[in-house]
Specification:
Oligomer: single chain
Shape: globular
Distance between the termini: 5 Å
Order of helices and strands: HHHHHHHHH
Largest sheet: none
Helix content: over 70%
Radius of gyration: 20 Å
Structural class: mainly alpha
Number of strands: 0
């Protein structure tokens, strides 16, 4: 049995972002019901982590452990929303078949684990790059600089790994996707989608919250709660945009074996 090279194409960044926003508004009431607990968990984790201002390795691990329950909730939400968009499945209308529920539980575990591992990898790389920037010297350490540049390149390539929790949720073969998802163009497209659907809206929201804090003397906890509440909304938008991007990319793909 031989796996042929998958027919994975490119996608329209603007179409994916637009449809992601449309889907978020279309399923708004359902998303509020299934998303309220993950959003609250995310906000509380951000507040708790903000209280620990030390930046050594022990405290980074401690902060990760404090945030782990929230990451699991976010992974669960991604699983639920991806299956709604791709399969039309709703958690309040699940099939009662035992085999279906067992298989769905396996997919849920795989999707959440992949999501958490991906977030761990990205967070670790981010902290390493920040550490290098904060501790750099005028003459510098050439091997360390080179390692940082390589790591940035790896991070850029690794953006395609963000699709794996969604693909695991809908039971698409992960190896097949990784085998066909190649080229720098895909990384540029995914980076642009991340900017458009998540990073830029979050930056603008952060600037707005900072202005509100000055005008109304908002405390740090209140600012974090508002900002991370909006961050969850943009996370929902990004999931929808990512699902549409994958739908476009895999539209011509058929799993063929011989």
């Amino acid at each position: 049995m031989t796996l042929r090279k998958p027919n994975i194409g490119r996608f329209s960044i603007l179409d994916a972002a637009r449809k992601g926003l449309r889907d978020m508004m279309l399923h708004g009431s359902y998303l509020v019901r299934v998303g309220v607990v993950p959003m609250i968990a995310s906000v509380l984790a951000a507040i708790v982590v903000s209280l620990n201002t030390k930046d050594d390795v022990f405290n980074l691990i401690t902060n990760f452990l404090w945030g782990l329950p929230a990451e699991i909730f976010l992974g669960w939400f991604l699983f639920v929303y991806a299956r709604l968009l791709v399969l039309g499945e709703r958690v309040d209308r699940l099939d009662s078949d035992v085999e279906f529920r067992r298989h769905r539980q396996q997919l849920l575990r795989a999707s959440v684990i992949i999501f958490v591992l991906f977030k761990m990898f990205m967070a670790g790389c981010h902290h390493f790059i920040l550490w290098v920037m904060e501790n750099r010297t005028p003459d510098g350490d050439t091997p360390l600089k080179l390692a940082t540049l390589v790591l940035i390149g790896v991070l850029f390539w690794s953006l395609r790994l963000a699709a794996l929790p969604v693909l695991a949720a809908v039971d698409y073969p992960l190896k097949r996707f990784l085998f066909g998802a190649h080229g720098a163009g895909l990384s540029f497209q995914l980076f642009a989608l991340l900017l458009l659907s998540y990073a830029l809206p979050l930056l603008m929201t952060g600037a707005f919250v900072a202005q509100l804090a000055q005008q109304f003397s908002l405390g740090t906890t209140t600012q974090l709660a508002i900002l991370h509440g909006f961050a969850f909304v943009f996370f929902v938008w990004l999931i929808g945009a990512g699902c549409d991007a994958l739908r476009q990319m895999l539209a011509r793909d058929k799993i063929e074996v011989k």
